Amino acid sequence: MATAPAPVLELVTLRITVSQEEALAKQAAPINNTLRKAPGFQHITWGFQAEDPTVLHWLIRWESLAHHEALIASPAYGPFVTLLTTFATPALIHSTVTVPPAAVVEWITVTLTADADHGSHVARAGALKDALHGVPGFKGIDSATVIENERAIVSLVGWDSVQAHDDWRSSQTPELTEKLLAVYQGKDVAAVSMWHVVVKGEAGPA
């Protein structure tokens, strides 16, 4: 796996096979007994996806990618994964993106075409930060490349609520709509995914 500057965010998708209440109870052991005690662990935020309540997300900040890789290589990782799979099917990516402090985190992943100008797209995406400044309920935004796929860019946008985001979308000006289309539906965009993580909790090192 490629190296990345420290710190790094592990973005985990857990498709749960039990109820939300049971998933929250079952996640306590792997989080408290393994993640929070691991060298280099800094913070975890968790919450369910608003669009699909059978999906639980973890956003885990590590001091570096090497620290997470060390956990994966350690004897503790096998039992950790075994506990996870008792209630969910996990998948993950890494990025240097930061999580805005908010009640709801909008998670957007844009995958560019093979011939896309990565720098140009990042610049267009950055312009959205200025457009969002002062919007009611907006709490912050950050974007960065996905370490496992250089053509993918993940953005995390903080909101007071899903409704605050919906209100902003319904009040967009034609000029702003044009900017959004350039970022998310431009000719250099191969695919886009978006959902909201409704934050249920967070924790630092044990």
Major sheet: order of its strands? 4-1-3-2-8-5-7-6
Looking at CATH, which topology of the largest domain would you report?
Alpha-Beta Plaits
Silhouette: globular
Following the backbone from N to C, one meets helices and strands in this order, namely: EHEEHHEEHEEHHE
Give the radius of gyration: 17 Å
Percent of residues in helices comes to 25-40%
Bin the strand percentage: 35-45%
Structural class: alpha+beta
How many strand elements? 8
| Multimeric state | single chain
Domain module tally: 2
CATH class of the largest domain: Alpha Beta
Low-confidence stretches: none
Supply the CATH architecture of the largest domain. Answer: 2-Layer Sandwich
Largest β-sheet summary: 8 strands, antiparallel
Distance between the termini: 28 Å
- State the helix count: 6
Average pLDDT reading: 92
